[in-house]
Write a structure and sequence with these properties.
The structure is a single chain. This protein is of the alpha+beta class. It has one domain. It has helices at residues 25-40, 57-71, 77-91, 96-104, and strands spanning 2-4, 11-14, 17-20, 45-46, 52-53, 114-117, 123-124, 127-128. The protein starts with a strand and ends with a strand.
Length: 129
C-alpha cells in the first residue's frame, strides 16, 4: 500500500515501520551490486580518479552517498533510509549502526493520509505488472 499526506512524499510500510516509498528501491540497488560483486569482484572496473570498483557493499554505499549528498543535496531521512536499504539488499540485513539509525527514523504521520495505490503497476520492457 502506498499512502500520501497533503502532497508530501509518498510512503509505505516495511516491517511495520513507515518509510518513504522510493527508499525501498535501494534494496534492489544493494542486491544488484551484490550480484555484480559476486560475478566480477576479481575484475574491478576503473572509474574516475583511478578508483577501482568491485561492486562491494562499500562501493554501493559510496555511490548512494554521492548521489544523495552531491547530486541531490539530500540531508534528510531519505538519505539514511537509502543507505539502510542498500545494506539490506546487499547482505540481507543492515549492520548494527545503520540498523539502529533505521529503527530510529521518525515514523510518518498516517492519521491524515490516504491510500493512493493499493498495489504498484508498471512495465519492464514488454512485461506488465
Amino acid at each position: 500500500m502506498i499512502c500520501q499526506y497533503a502532497g508530501l512524499t509518498p510512503f509505505t510500510f516495511y516491517e511495520g515501520r513507515c518509510v518513504y516509498a522510493g527508499s525501498l528501491n535501494y534494496i534492489l540497488w544493494g542486491h544488484i551490486n551484490r550480484l555484480a560483486h559476486d560475478k566480477f569482484k576479481q575484475n574491478p572496473f576503473e572509474i574516475a580518479f583511478g578508483y577501482r570498483v568491485s561492486w562491494s557493499l562499500a562501493d554501493a554505499l559510496i555511490a548512494v552517498r554521492y548521489h544523495k549528498l552531491i547530486d541531490l543535496h539530500d540531508l534528510s531521512e531519505t538519505n539514511l533510509e537509502a543507505q539502510y536499504f542498500t545494506e539490506i539488499g546487499f547482505q540481507g540485513y543492515a549492520d548494527e549502526v545503520l540498523y539502529a539509525i533505521g529503527r530510529a527514523l521518525k515514523h510518518c504521520d498516517t492519521s491524515h493520509s490516504k491510500v493512493i495505490a493499493d498495489s504498484l503497476h508498471g512495465h519492464w520492457g514488454k512485461i506488465k505488472f
